[in-house]
Amino acid sequence: SRAHLSAVYRDLGNLDEAIDLLKGSLDFYNKNLPKDHVIQGWIKFHLGSTYRHKGDREMAMKLLSESLAINQKHYGKSHIKTAQILNSLGKLGIVCQTFEKSKEYLENALKVYSIENHHDRYKVYEALGDLYNEMYRRGDGNRSIMSKSLENFQKAIVVVEKHFPTDSTHIVRIRSKIARLEI
Hints:
With 183 residues, this protein is mainly alpha-helical. The protein has nine helices and no strands. Helix content is 81%, strand content 0%.
């Protein structure tokens, strides 16, 4: 489908092509399904995430928030798909520097992933590491915040090493973030 192809374009950095495909999918589904159908939520999640990558914070927030409402209505607050959206909203909050809201989204995502002991919880630990690192950089240099960043990156590494090959790009990326911390 167009939506699946858009993920490939987004991963390749072709954000405008990804957005065009997702908008086309959303238009199609808007004509054929109720506005709160779970497929609408899925498309809005991917479109919002793509806008986040593009730097359009306002559109990303609108679409991700709509997606969250649809997914929570359909799946509930404790579903993996809901956690994916919460994680994306948390990452957006880091960029927008709405740190407390970002922390709330990420902690809620972590609760959901932890229920299932899901391997994607590394994404939340990594995002929490990024959040605390950004809070440290933007704040008063409080060392306890920096130690929270390190702690979350280390938790992410533990999960990634358990579930991915030793040469995984996830391991390389997270270890690189640890190495750059000002500890």
